[in-house]
Amino acid sequence: MVARPGPAVTGASSGGTEYRGARRRLVEVLQEKGIRDLAVLRAVDEVPRHLFVPTGVVHRAYEDAPLPIGSGQTISQPFIHARSLEAACLTGRGKVLEIGTGSGYQTALLAHLAAQVFSVERVGGLLPSAREALARCGVTNVSFLQGDGTLGWSQYAPFDAIIVGAGAPDVPAPLVAQLAEGGRLVVPVGDREEQQLLCVTRRGAETVTEDLGAVRFVPLIGAAGWAS
Ligand code: SAH
After folding, report:
1. Is beta strand 142-146 parallel, antiparallel or unpaired with respect to 116-121?
2. Contact, 53 vs 67, CB < 8 A?
């Protein structure tokens, strides 16, 4: 008997062709909303977001919407991720710090846009699923830390970019201190309900701040953030 080759294994678990069309449509939506950075759009086209959301909401994985990920946290809206990553002006060569790993989806986007990614998450229970999803995507250039990201990760500083995925009451000073010259810190700053997404660029001893617009993030809890 001659064995015939079976159908190619694609489907949900591999992030193969099953969701490719949905991902392409999400990229088009982001372009329509003003995202221009081709590297960011390519990363969104390549990262299987359905691997980073709970099974109950997989059918909504490619909507441009935030979704619950457990522990009272959310995976942010893809447009907000794209806006933050575009503002960080990543070249593919840099060293980047992410505060708030959450689902790990933005971590995977960053892994496409930087040489080395360092990601800090306060809620330890979220890290195993984020690690697993990243491993399934074949990502190998990410280091994780469970702890208070408002203090940064001084061992690996300075960073070319720091992206904060939770809302702070003020720009966290330890994070500004860990920026490289010309480095950019993207952080939502405001009250617990609504914030302005700020991009703070370090220029010598000074900083230049750009306001990217109103956003809603879960609170950044820690020494240079909100009290829990
Ligand atoms: N970009 C992530 C965002 C997750 S929500 C995603 O799309 O999945 C924000 C995350 O920030 C939560 O997981 C929350 O636990 C985490 N967080 C809040 N305060 C933190 C702190 N001080 N240090 C590290 N992570 C923090």
Report:
1. parallel
2. yes
pLDDT score, position 12: 38
Tell me, using a 6 A CB cutoff, whether residue 119 lines ligand 1: no
Domain ranges in the chain? 20-215
CA of 155 to the centre of ligand 1 (A): 20
Computed over every residue of the chain, the mean pLDDT equals 93
Phi, psi dihedrals of residue 8, rounded to the nearest 5°: -60, 140
The CATH code belonging to domain 20-215 is 3.40.50.150
Q: What amino acid occupies position 114?
A: A
> Crossing angle for the helix pair 38-46 and 78-87, nearest 10 degrees?
140
What tens digit of pLDDT does each residue of 50-102 get? 999 999 999 999 999 999 998 888 999 999 999 999 999 999 999 999 999 99
Ligand 1 site-directed mutation target among 83, 123, 144, most atoms within 8 Å of CB: 123
Q: On the CB side of 168, how many CA atoms lie within 13 Å of its CA?
A: 26
